[in-house]
Design a protein that fits this description.
The protein is α+β, with helices and mostly antiparallel strands and about 200 residues long. The protein is about 25% helix and about 35% strand. It has a 5-stranded mixed sheet. The longest helix is centred in the N-terminal third of the chain and has 40 residues. The termini are far apart.
């Protein structure tokens, strides 16, 4: 038996108006969420020490206060790149620049493209840390079997919480394809070039 629509034209118009009234707040919430995504993501990154930019304002000073810095890193997925810091642990003076080197090796027979992304722990140190030179400023490309050494220069701000006695600088290396690399080349970097040796 076929169902029949017993709604009058007036009832149908009321239903459409009601649907429209319900839809308007949903659209407003969607637009609001879209605009809030960037600041919310920044807050999330700062909370977990995953810094979007390696360039924070820091205070330079002779503090005489020493802090231990641990260097760790992983490659995401199956990227055939080996990388390791020259020193995995350093004791540095807070408020003064300190330097380390990273050696990268492309262990494959193919050209690889990747993006290094850094994070700082603990949270209190994430915004009191800056880099003046880092391979993470740029996307990287390595030819088959190529080796590169990159210098990293960092600073822990003189006003960093004195309770922080140890900081971890961690890198995750994400593989990128050639098309993504070409798109990024068209976007100017906010930081200076890392300049591998």
């Amino acid at each position: 038996m076929e169902s029949q629509d017993y709604k009058t034209p007036e009832q149908k118009r009321k239903n459409k108006r009601m649907a429209l009234l319900l839809l308007i707040p949903v659209i407003i919430i969607m637009f609001g969420f879209t605009y809030a995504q960037v600041p919310l993501f920044r807050m999330f990154c700062q909370k977990i020490g995953f810094s979007i930019s390696p360039l924070n304002d820091v205070e330079y000073a002779d503090t005489g206060r020493m802090c231990k810095v641990l260097y760790t890193g992983v490659t995401a997925g199956s990227l055939p790149v080996y990388f390791k810091p020259k020193q995995s642990v350093q004791t540095v003076e807070v408020g003064k620049p300190f330097e380390n080197e990273y050696r990268f090796v492309n262990m494959s027979k193919d050209t690889v493209h990747f993006r290094p992304v850094h994070s700082i722990l603990p949270e209190k140190a994430a915004t009191k840390f800056t880099m003046t030179k880092c391979f993470c400023f740029d996307d990287q490309t390595m030819a088959p079997g190529e080796e590169k050494t990159f210098t990293v220069i960092s600073v822990l701000s003189a006003d960093m919480d004195p309770k922080v006695e140890q900081v971890t600088l961690h890198y995750t290396i994400f593989e990128k394809n050639a098309e993504e690399m070409e798109k990024n080349r068209q976007i100017p970097n906010v930081a200076q070039s890392s300049g591998g040796k």
